[in-house]
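Hi U.,

Before I forget, here's the chain from the pilot set. I'm dumping it here mostly so it's searchable later in email.
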Amino acid sequence: MPMIQVNLLTGYSSALKDRLARALTSVIGGITRAKPDAITLWIHEIDPENYSRGGSPRLPGSGTTDPVMLVLGYLDAMQERNLETAQTYLAAPFAMTFPGSGELTSLGALVEWSKDRYRHIEKTVMATNVAYETDHIVVMVQGTLAGQWPDGRNFSGVRFIDRFELREDLIHRQDVWNDLANKKPPA
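Structure:
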């Protein structure tokens, strides 16, 4: 029965502490095979007046934005073709790859590359997974695509996986895998 104690400076949001508790429970359960209800977690909050590092008092950090919500916000903006909003989610520099695209470094390049592939596309998200690495966060998004070919015919049920790398609440990289080529109608 694993027991975890975490010390945090007072001031972090309840949502951040909830994400922390869920993530730590998942990691401990994944490593020890303990069931979630057998894992106990205490979060001890310490008043910043009672804490210093290097002889200087410290305040709590801001914490990260929920990485799943950040990625889904970006995907929603892209689906709506609101490129201005989508751009606010991206770091500079930013890189993305799609099947057959090579590396693209701007949303304009993506729009240009995709214009002969489909008229529009929609993603239905079925699952998300988050991995906290030492210097970045990885978000995997899995689901299906539906849309319309350039000739007006519809398609649906196309599997996809997107892998995002985030640092400082910005997307630095997006890699996409999908079965769109397997559904393409003959020319």
